[in-house]
Amino acid sequence: MRVLLDAHMLGQREGGNETYVAGLLDGFAELGPTAAQITALYSPGYTPRPGPHAAAQLADRSDVRRLLFALPVAARRSAADVVHVTYNAPFQLTGATVVTVHDVIYRRYPAYFSPRVRLLLNTLLPLSMRRADLVITDSEASRHEIAHYYPAVAEKVRVVPIAAGPVASTPPDVAAAESLTGGRPFVLAVGTLQPRKNIARLVEAYIRLRQAGVTDARLVVVGQAAWQSSPIQRMAAESPFAGDIIFPGYLDDATVAALYRRCTAFVYPSLYEGFGLPVLEAMACGAPVITSNLSSLPEVAGDAALLVDPHSVEAIGTALAQLIERPELRAELRRRGAQRAAQFSWERTARGVLEVYHEAVERHRARRR
Description:
Layout: E1 2-6, H1 16-31, E2 37-42, E3 54-58, H2 61-64, H3 67-77, E4 82-86, E5 96-100, H4 105-108, H5 115-131, E6 134-137, H6 140-149, E7 157-159, H7 174-181, E8 186-190, H8 199-211, E9 218-222, H9 230-237, E10 245-249, H10 253-262, E11 265-268, H11 277-284, E12 289-292, H12 297-301, E13 306-308, H13 313-325, H14 327-341, H15 346-368
Parallel strand pairs: 1-2, 1-4, 2-3, 4-5, 5-6, 6-7, 8-9, 8-11, 9-10, 11-12, 12-13
């Protein structure tokens, strides 16, 4: 089977979308050359990692500037049996098409997106899913949401869980982590600074614990500033503990790996996730995890994390105090987390995606008969 995979987001710091494509290519490489012949369409200037099973077709700038035109051209050149894209599929594709939709957060929480992004998603994604032969999503929670908002495509959605990103297997840069934290104990959060990630309530819970004398640990929030991030940073800056609330921005995998491994607790209180990769990454690195009891996060965490109501500052603070004060609980969650993370792998993801490819090709052929 010949597959064209849209990999233009690699090297673009696109968070979970980038991790997904990189992990999928790694998974196909583990399956071996007989599984599928993969042609990956990269952005210009990106140098793909060597891999005998994933042939790279590096598009020139004129192609990538208009990705919707580049993909159909690349599909014809590679004689692809199936084209796999994330979110938006070009109308000009004539063969079998698979679309990955990690979530439809913009429908559940429209206020968390800019008007421009909402317009693009509301316009293009429904069309993309309707035209696709099959839709892949990462969790049962996301499948349910897609079916709720787009019942016309419900029967086309297939769930293929993903795995931890490369940070989980990256050698940690301990020196960089210690330089950032000053060698002091710290609580860690990872995620783009946007309202959905719920960092504001975590900061408030942390400030309350500091005021109550529960801890003198620092709070490190790793992630790029995004739309509506200013109120979070302002709250931290105006608190009595501003010097201990650290926003280092985007960090390399080696530094994040060290932070996961050395934190007292990892807190991921997101209001909505299609999967929640940082939870799995933290567990794989041995961090004791607190996360939300909403959307896909209980599905991913299983019994290996403390689950809290993310709308409650008190609940977040109570769980955090438990981990700070009870080393035996931290040790137990580290043990459970490692076991939970081991249940997910990119090879398993690639196998599931390959099954979807075969089904999509058969559905496409049946439609053309």
